[in-house]
Amino acid sequence: MPNLFIFQEEELGLAKSYGWERETASVCSGSLDGVEYSLRNRKGVVKMTMPRTLAFCSLSLLWRRETITLSDLLRFVEEDHIPYINAFQHFPEEMKLYGRDKGIFAIESWPDYEDIYKKMIEVATFLDLPRFPDITEDCYLHPDILCMKYLMEVNLPDEMHSFTCQVIKMAGIGEVDFLTFDPVAKMAKTVKYDVQAVAVIVVVLKLLFLLDDNLEWSLSTIAEKHNEENKEDKPWFDFRKWYQVMKKSFDEKKQKWEEARAKFVWKSEKPLYHSSIDRSVAYKRREMVVNLQKQFSTLVDSTPTVEKKNPSSFQFNWTEEDTDRTCFHGHSLQGILTKKGQSLTTKNSLYWLSTQKFCKSYCKHVTTYEESNFSLSYQFILNLFSFLLRIKTSFLHEEVSLIEKRLFKTKYSKTKKKSSRSRKVRK
């Protein structure tokens, strides 16, 4: 009780020092929590913001090993399944928000994947959380399972899954210790599970088709000719046909997304006001706007409002029954594989590294990404997956490069030796 009394006295003293009594502070100038929140600017103090609330939710899902990735969570926010923009609308009437409280809850931007990811590590480290439950092979967040999910989503053949599993094993990114988040560790970092899985698929596509704007189209011509001559057999995967189907679906989906963003109303139905005096004015303005909207809607033939769909981890759905769009899940990779003894190998024996330049600092990230330096096929695939995850293309390119660095250690060490030798010669 004494501690609580001291806290209350300090709280009241804070209000008096700014010329308010307790009641006045809560009605006219924001709650005392809001005032104290805006004043705290000490180093090491982590303020709970709306983005950090999302980071905390993502940590909770990770702790429980739920079948929701960070990109899913942020997309559910975007689709208004999770209150985030104007979340205060859902507060009960007795929770009055005034003045400085507005700065906490008034969000005017969409959550960013990279920002929330960094805040996850920040919050977990600040709370001194222990090692999270292990991410094992039977867990949804394991790359083997996530790769299958994203292969299905982007309409690629099921046979590619065996290749993604091999890449995961060779790169050593499927191990429990690598995947499990440990905030107490010396280098606290969590895995970008969805980005990593998608990056593995990009690497496999490069292994199979090279993606140099040449080989993939040559293999497509061979597959197209085979499918015409053998219509009753299992069709070979045709990269060109897949590109045409996916580009059309992707363009349609992206256009709808851009239109929805452009039409999004940032103003809330339940307005925030700075004081009790402003309350009546704010509600009168809001009522006037609503009435005007109703009047205009009767004059204009507006399209009926579409009911909100239930949240889903899939944005694209492909079925064999869909006659308008080809489903490639059951197509064969035989046209791009060749028998070598008892095993199958890829006809393509070449591979190009996404980058050979990494930052010299401790982080070791990719220094630059310029689209003009890469093939159109590679750009399309990066853009497709980046849209799915709502991330920057450069962010995905960086993850692809890091997986390649683990896969092709000898190539990277050779380039490193060459560069060091050239420096010596120049000297």
UniProtKB/TrEMBL annotation:
Localisation per UniProt entry: Nucleus, Nucleolus
Annotated Gene Ontology cellular component terms: RNA polymerase I core factor complex; RNA polymerase transcription factor SL1 complex
Pfam assignment, any one: Rrn7_cyclin_C
InterPro entries named in the record: Rrn7_cyclin_C, TAF1B/Rrn7
Domain Rrn7/TAF1B C-terminal cyclin: 109-299
Molecular functions (GO terms): RNA polymerase I core promoter sequence-specific DNA binding; zinc ion binding
Keywords assigned by UniProt, alphabetized: DNA-binding, Metal-binding, Nucleus, Transcription, Transcription regulation, Zinc, Zinc-finger
Keyword Zinc-finger: yes
Major place of residence: nucleus
BP terms from Gene Ontology: nucleolar large rRNA transcription by RNA polymerase I
Keyword Zinc-finger carried by entry: yes
Family that this chain belongs to: Belongs to the RRN7/TAF1B family.
PANTHER family the record matches: TATA BOX-BINDING PROTEIN-ASSOCIATED FACTOR RNA POLYMERASE I SUBUNIT B
The protein's name in its UniProt record: TATA box-binding protein-associated factor RNA polymerase I subunit B isoform X3
Taxonomic source organism: Pteropus vampyrus (Large flying fox)
Gene: TAF1B
